[in-house]
Amino acid sequence: MLLYIDPGTGSMLFTILIGLFGSLFYSMKIFLIKLKGWIGGGKVEKINRKIPFAIYSDDKRYWAIFESICEKLDKLDKEVLYLAASEDDPVFKKKFKNIKAEYIGKSNKSFFRLNYLNASILLSTTPGFGVYQWKRSKNVDYYVHITHAASDIAMYRMFGIDYYDAILLSGQYQVEDVRALESLRNLPAKELVKVGIPYMDDMLKRVKTAKPIAKHKTTVLLAPSWGPSAIFSVYGGTIIKELLKTGYHIIVRPHPQSFSAEKDLMEKLMNEYPASEDLEWNRDNDNFEVLRRSDVLISDFSGVIFDFALIFEKPVIYTNPNFDTSPYDMWWLNKAPWTSSALPRIGRELTTENFSKIKDLVKDCVKDKKLSKSLVEVKQEVWEHIGEGAERTVKYLTDKLEEITAKKNAQKNKKAKEKET
Q: How far, rounded to the nearest angstrom, does the alpha carbon of residue 353 sit from its chain's CA centroid?
């Protein structure tokens, strides 16, 4: 009879094994370092020295989030450790003075490194901290989460942000959703700071300095999210088939996660609809150029909708599938996501009724200038402190470091006085 272990128990057992192995590993490391010191007759060197700032990026595509933050941190003469899960992360091509990049791999290998990290502050876009294998290191003082898109904070997988100490946000509705989740789950209040959206600031600067786009055929970008409620799961290849009938130039840019979580589906679609003069598949790490040369975007609940509409001020067509919120934090709030109220104000909905008339829908969107008037309202809700994202983020991090340092010094002084008496 085979022994069955459910995923939850398996995760718990794996975490215990990591802890035991990690303790053994570092105990041996300490012993060897001490032995070296005793044999050499010198002082024992400090192990795993504490670093002021650490950044964890679980995929190279998040370099857009961290680039401007790193550039500002590098000028402060403070040591920063950038932990990259992608071996080809763009950070490795940068020549920073104070930022050291380290490839830590993915999954279990990266969790092991993170669980024994020694840093004052860790900044990351990755949800799920403290839920599965990635646990709080006893040598990290403060964990800070920064969002990677202009969208609902409650659309992370359930409990995705519960165990961070602070979250950097871009809109008041996000603050309200986090506070509501904390109340429902009896969680201690996290520090919530509205800093803006650094990567959107950077993209806006690029738009203003970019050369004009050459005259071209009307271009439609199909860029869905992934999962059972996303466009490809709902419509399959039919949507590509209908778009090709329009005579427009079609660019398909699936969510990067689709190529791992929905590998069979992606292979099927790319085989059925191979690249041609009228169709291209785009997987660029940097999406700036593909957004810039597209006239209309078709998507679902992907954050790219707001990049396209708010930065490039171009029309979007969105689908409104029967979205299952049960795996996400939004389920707890028992309300519609903010995104569902924002989309009708910045685009047109693609439905089963108008699906066969998608060409006319695209044509109307390109001509309709009224849609752009409501962009201002949506932009104000989701993107506060435009142009100040990286600066405010770095100021928050440095202020927090000073606060942590001052608190530790006060505790040391208190202990020293207690010893004297």
A: 34
Whether 53 and 120 have beta carbons less than 8 Å apart is answered as yes
Write the DSSP string, 100-168: EEEE--SHHHHHHHHHT--EEEEEE--S-TTTSS----TTEEEEEEE-SSSS-GGGSBTTTTTT-SEEE
Spell out the domains of the chain, with CATH numbers in brackets: 12-47 (no CATH), 48-197+387-404 (3.40.50.2000), 209-382 (3.40.50.2000)
Q: Which residue has the higher pLDDT, 385 or 413?
A: 385
The answer to whether the pTM exceeds 0.70 is yes
Distance CA 297, CA 304 (A): 9
Which of 299, 253, 250, 254 minimizes the C-alpha distance to 279? 250
Q: What's the confidence (pLDDT) of residue 99? A: 97
Average pLDDT (321-328) is 76
At 211 the three-state DSSP class reads coil
Average pLDDT rounded to a whole number, residues 146-163: 92
234 against 173, higher pLDDT: 173
Contact 141, 118 (CB under 8 A): no
Spatial neighbors of 177 by CB under 8 A, at least 6 apart, are 152, 153, 154, 329, 333, 338
Element (H, E) at 47: none
* Backbone φ/ψ region at 41: left (φ over 0), alpha (ψ -120 to 50), beta: left
Which of 9-18, 152-161, 289-298 is the least confident region?
9-18
Q: Mean pLDDT throughout 321-350?
A: 86
Which is nearest to 195 in space by CA: 237, 167, 233?
167
Q: How high is the pLDDT of residue 267?
A: 95
Q: What is the DSSP letter of 189?
A: P
Q: Are 190 and 182 contacting, i.e. CB atoms less than 8 angstroms apart?
A: yes
- Measured CA to CA, the distance from residue 203 to residue 196 in angstroms comes to 13
Give Dmax over CA atoms of the chain in angstroms. 86
- Taking each continuous run of H as one helix and of E as one strand, the counts in the chain are 16, 13
